[in-house]
Each structure stands twice: as structure tokens, then as C-alpha cells.
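[scheduler] slot 2 assigned
[scheduler] job type: sequence-to-structure, two independent chains
[scheduler] chain ordering preserved from manifest
[runner] begin chain α
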Amino acid sequence: MKEVTLGLVGVGRIGIMHAKNIAALNEVLNHDGINVRLKLTDMAADHARSVAAEFGAEFLHSVESMIGSGIDGLVIATGTTTHPDLIRAGVDAGIPVFCEKPVAVNVAESLPVVEYIREKGGTVQIGHQRRFDPGYIEAKRAYDAGELGWIHSVRAVTCDMTPPPVEFLATSGGLFRDCSVHDFDILRWLTGKEIVEVYAKGSNNGDPAIGEVGDVDTALAVVTFDDGTVGTVSATRYNGAGHDVRLELQGSARTILVGMDEQMAVRSAEAGVAFPSGSAHTTFAERFDQAYRSEMAAFVQVVLGERKNPCTPEDAVAASKVADAAQESLETGAPVRVLA
């Protein structure tokens, strides 16, 4: 039996989800002769102890003591501003790192981290979980197989049911960097094409406090790919119908839609059409439950050297460059070229 010990830093909302998924890995991986153990730490020690007890993990008082205790991989689920130092700590320890997106608060601060990883020969997987969602995987398969013909239009949608706390939005970098960056990443991954220009508009008709911290609650970006294909990426914080994430690829031969299932947060206006009839997803964690579990299983494979890194820091920075361009366009009202 192979033993893999993962160290988790941060047990807020995302961290608890990762702790739960790591604890559940053995239900699947034991069949492959792999046993996963979990250690965790957080500045909120009492809360972290409680989470550790719930998931059969070992609590440690600091990142340093956790790394020093012997772990095979480091999982980072803390605030964005802490990512660079924690990534470096994992790389310095010579262990693979999983880090929630983004690498750092902006591209300028991300680039030195990426260079550090490269110089040290480190392995860092960034958490863009949509790459592990079955719908996106099937869409990529169909696209790569040429079943859609040539693509003439792309439409990506990400809608939160309710907004995060304003305190979070004040430091998130804006709707495009916090939310739509997932769409920018998945479009690059799925098509293999680069987005070279963005033209963005936004509005703020919900909580005035969101505008007061410099963000918008709804935004739309028109994107142009390097082959001239056009698309739209839209996002909102206020979609009362449910958490709605979709991607439509329209080709000369066929159209495919990711997210069109019984839990899609829409209803038909046509008479006699009952689809979709299920309860809509309410959160991103629910919508991408399977993807998050598959993502962590993939990280274990990376730790064991059985799989190539499925989402590199370079990938994450490329998506962040598009998000930065979208934010700049939103602020200036003009189209913006994406930095190479």
C-alpha cells in the first residue's frame, strides 16, 4: 500500500471542502493500493482542531511544523495574498504543491513566483477545477475530434446565486479576476487558442456597497481569439434562480452546451416544455462537486509522479492576463490587447 500524506493550509470554506474531499479519497484510491493521510493547519487554531477531528486529520500549529513533520504534498487554501510565500515554502521543501487560484493578487506579482518555481524545478498545480468537470471534458473531446466543425461563436456564463461578502469583494481584484478567470482558463484549455483582445462593460444594480469598493455585480466581455473567432464571457453576482455555469460552443457542423442538465438554473418560456425540472445548484461547490474531487485525486497522482501537472502556474497566469485586460477595459471603456 502506497502512503501519501497531504498537508492542508487554511480551513475556511474552500479549505473545509478540500479536507472533506481528501478524507474521502481513500474510498476510491484504496482500490489502487493508495492510502491518503491528512494534516492541516490554520491561524484559527480552535476551528482547525475541530475540522481535523471531523475528518480524521492531524492538527499542527504552523505551516513550518507541518512541513517539518513530513508531508508528501502541500495544499494551499488560504487568502490570495498568502499564496506566493506558501508556494515558495512548498517548493523549498521539495514537495509538489496544490494552490487555489490565483498564483498571486495580480500578474505582476505572479511572474516572480512562476520564475522561482521554474528555477527551483518545483511542481505547482493551480486549482482551476473546471478542467476536471465531465461536461467540459466531453466538450473538449468533441472539439478536438472535429465533431463541431469550425467554431464561429463561443458563449461562457458564470452566475453566482448570491454575492460573497463585500469585505471579500474589496480585495478580490474585481469580478473578472475573481470569477470570470475560470471562464478565461477553460476557453484556453478547451480550444488551445489564446485570447488576444477583450472589450468589457459592467453594471451595478444590486448592493451599492459593491460599487463603493470598486467592483461591479454584472459584467460582459467580448473576447477575440488569435484566429479571429469571437466569443462572450458574462458573469453576475445576483442570479436568484441558482448557481449557473454554462459554456456554448457553436460550430459549423454542431453546437454543444456544457451545463445543460436537469439542474440548470433556467426555465423554458415555451408551452409544454418541462425541461429542466430539477432543483438548481445553489453554490459553485455543489455545481462542481465531482470536479473538485477529481482535481484532488489528480494532485495525488502528481505527488506520486503518475501524472503530468494538469494546470501549471503558467496556465493560471495566462488566464489572469486575460482577466487583467478585461478589468482594464471595464475601467477605460476601450478594447484592450492581452499581454503576450
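[runner] end chain α
[runner] begin chain β
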Amino acid sequence: MSTHLYLTRHGETIWNTKNVMQGWKDSPLTDKGVKQAMQLADRLSTVSLDAIYSSTSERAINTAEIIKRGRPIEVIKLNSLRELSFGIWEGKTFDENEKATPEQWFTFWEKPHLFSSDTVESFKQVQERMVNTIESIVKAHPSENICIVTHSIALKLLMHYFEKIPLEKLWSTPAIPSTSLSLVKISEGINEFLLKYDTSHL
């Protein structure tokens, strides 16, 4: 008995194209982002999805609704699948944040295991809520196919947990492409990667 998790990141957004940080804040999908979601929907059209979960951010919900197409299921929205909250960095560009808080910015990108902030959510917190959420979803859907639409850092932290990659190496792996597809087979607590950040549908 195995549960298959189809994990993806939302489509490209306007703020993505402007290097604006959008953790719990939001911006709409671009035309390209909608197309990416449609291409992923095509890819998954032959997969019998038993449930679709999404972060409560509109960019993720919109991506999930496109993936859903005519399936007679509702997209289940969970706050715990949201992106890392960037606190005071939200809605500002990378350059603006680097200039405003250079030491914190450096630690965030160069020493993530040491990063702490009064307003920015910690990597450990995000990883814990993602892992707990996925474990609950897997428990609720034994031997089913589940699609989960989430965000770049949240998904990276989850995948690194599966792969046992330590937090200090968070940025050692490439950025996760929009609507890339990862497929994890979970059987009796054993995680097997069948796909990882695949973009062959784009």
C-alpha cells in the first residue's frame, strides 16, 4: 500500500518577475504562470487524483484549480502549506531588503541554519509545519494519489527533510521551477522519489 504525492510549486507570478518577496502576501499569476499551470494540468490529466491540496495563497489556489479541471473534487486549502512568512521583507524587492537589513539578509542566504528574526518565520518552523501537514495528509489518504500545490522555500524544506539534507545546505540545491513536478511514493514510512523537480511538460 503506497500513497503517491504529486508535489508542485505554483505558477509564475507578477512579483516573481520583479524579484519581490511574496511569502504570505500575494500577487496574481502572470499569463506565463497560467500557461505553466495548464501544461501541468495536461501532464496530470491521465492521473487519477483522489485529492488536491493547496496553500491558502491565491497564487497556489489558482494553480490548483487549473490542475483540478473537471475532476469532481474540491481543492482543500490549508494555511500550513503557505510559504515562509517574510515579515518586514514582504512586498519589497531583494535589493531593498538587502540594503535595509544587510546582516540578516546575509545570514538568511549564506548561513540559513543560524538565521533568526523577530518578524521573518524561521526555516525550522516552516519545515516542521510542512512535514506535520504532509504526514497528516498521507495518513488521511492511504494508497491514494494526492496533488499538493505549495511554494518554493516551503517545498524545498520538505524535500530536504525527505532527503535528510541539513538546514545549513538549504541553498545548495537549485531553485525550484514554477509548476515543476516531484513525485514521492510513500510506503510504510519509506520515501521513494519517482520524479524530482521535473519540467518536461513545460
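[runner] end chain β
[qc] chain β: The chain has one domain: 3-83+122-198.
[scheduler] slot 2 released
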